[in-house]
Amino acid sequence: MDRRHLPNLITMSRLVLAIVYFWMMLDLVHGWSGVDPSERARRSVAAGWVFGVAAGTDFLDGYFARRFNAVSAFGRIMDPFVDKVLVLGALVLVVEPLCPGSGVKPWMVIAILSRELFVTSLRASMEARGMPCPADRWGKWKMTAQSLTIPFAGVAAAGAFPNLGVTNEAFVPITHWFVLFTVVLTLVSALPYIVRSREAWR
């Protein structure tokens, strides 16, 4: 296998892991009220690990793309697309009241979704003009925050922090504040793209 294809294969593996995570969370949310609390906690932690592995591949594909000089138009398009499928799909599944106690409010999902659609449109218009627009450091920080927040929101809702060796009383409030911080960071991270698009269209 040509090693230059490795980054794209990793990107597509993230999509597969996202589907696995969605299936696990849909199964959990569907039977939320009828699932034993200890079993609900176990399932939420397992789903959180799957999400964490999926999110971790976002850093691997970028690393190998740079190392093997394999940055491609396919990767620039599919990488952010798969990220959005993973993050936005996960947010929908942990939103309150579907997942009560997560700290993720409907308005937060709307705000993040709006940002993602807006930035995607900007990047697509720049790509169409032959101006590559890869993710910048703000986008990476945003993705890191989202990758940590989403699984912990699910764990908080399921009351599963004791399964990780800490107390709910200590970490649920922290998780809820981190959810709000992630929303703010996500919105702020759109500003560099706005500046770059204005420069490109002059």
In short:
The chain is mainly alpha-helical.
CATH architecture: Up-down Bundle
> Do you know the CATH topology?
Four Helix Bundle (Hemerythrin (Met), subunit A)
| Helix and strand composition category | mainly alpha
Largest sheet: none
Q: How confident overall, as mean pLDDT? A: 84
Give the tally of structural domains.
Answer: 1
Strand content: under 5%
Indicate the overall shape. globular
**The first-level CATH class name:** Mainly Alpha
Number of helices: 7
Q: Which blocks of ≥5 consecutive residues have pLDDT under 50?
A: none
Calculate Rg over CA atoms: 18 Å
Distance between the termini: 42 Å
Report the count of strand segments. Answer: 0
Q: N-to-C SSE series?
A: HHHHHHH
Give the helix proportion (percent range).
Answer: over 70%
Question: Can you tell me about this structure?
Answer:
The protein has 202 residues and is mostly helical. The protein has a single domain, classed as Four Helix Bundle (Hemerythrin (Met), subunit A) (Up-down Bundle). It contains 7 helices and no strands. It has helices at residues 6-30, 37-67, 73-94, 106-128, 137-157, 168-188, 191-200. Helix 3 packs parallel to helix 5.
Keywords:
202 residues; 76% helix; Four Helix Bundle (Hemerythrin (Met), subunit A); 7 helices
